[in-house]
Amino acid sequence: MDREIIRSRVELEGVDSLADFSNKTIGVLTSHESIRGFQAKELPDGYLDAIITSARSAPTSSNLQAYSIVVVSDKERKFKLATYSGNQNFIREAPVFFVFCADIYRLKYVTKRQGFLFEGDSLEMFLLASMDAALTMQNALVAAEALGLGAVPVGSLRNEPIKVMEKLKLPRGVFALVGLAVGFEKEGVRRGVKPRLPQKVTVHHEEYSIKHLEDGLTDYDQQMISRRTYDGRRVSIAGEPERDGVEYGWCEHTARL
Question: InterPro entries under this entry (predicted)?
């Protein structure tokens, strides 16, 4: 019998406390599932503008807006970006592929334009720009899902940063941080909301604690193993033989990355 597809984290984790005040926004956020298969169907009029406007409404540090979004719909360009991103075919299928970039070029341009010397070549500036880009991506993702679309962030876009830079003609100071494939999902691609690490492992009150780390990791590992999450996705380490007696769950997978 096929495993029941659970579409909400509230249902998956039995978060009864949300029952009295859940709304559409919380429903969208707690129902996220990465979709990796899209129909050959274009976005309706207005959808692209709704996603972009939502993305541009994200918080930004000091109002620097140190990001840029490249919207890719050209088939040949999507094909190349898919190849650079681990040859993931869903990028080719998606009618739109967004590339969210940390953009320091524009800050340098403005500084020179105003007659000053740019002194922001620092790790802090790169982190700031990366956070701005990541926040815009998250807003775009939520907007797309609120419109009934499927979407999946693509971190493997960073596999070939120089090739991506050349294909998108990114100037020096602009780095392609993450992609986002968006479209109407194919039937049968959903597997259900994926379990997350237990709240007692990732959420700390007042101060950091490892009190529940080991038992939380053990419980989570068993969840992921029972779901067969990593079947066909195991990471091999050159020169490292298979280890007898070690179940391949989240801990083993994560340690091998």
Answer: Flavin_OxRdtase_Frp, Nitroreductase, Nitroreductase-like
Domain end marker among 141, 159, 183: 183
Q: For 110, how many CA atoms within 13 A lie in the half-sphere containing its CB?
A: 9
**For each of the chain's 257 residues, which pLDDT tens digit applies?**
356 788 889 888 888 777 777 789 999 999 999 999 999 999 999 999 999 999 999 999 999 999 999 999 999 999 999 999 999 999 999 999 999 999 999 999 999 999 999 999 999 999 999 999 999 999 999 999 999 999 999 999 999 999 999 999 999 999 999 999 999 999 999 988 999 999 999 999 999 999 999 999 999 999 999 988 888 888 888 777 777 778 899 999 999 98
The sheet that has 67-72: what strands, in order across it?
67-72, 96-103, 174-183, 150-154
Q: Which residues neighbour 134 within 8 Å (Cβ) at sequence distance 6 or greater?
A: 100, 177, 178
Pairing of strands 150-154, 96-103: unpaired
Q: How far is 236 from 25, CA to CA, in rounded Å?
A: 40
> Is 190 within a domain?
no
CA distance 221 to 250: 5
Between CA 153 and CA 33 the distance in angstroms is 10
Residue 105 is part of a domain; what is its CATH number? 3.40.109.10
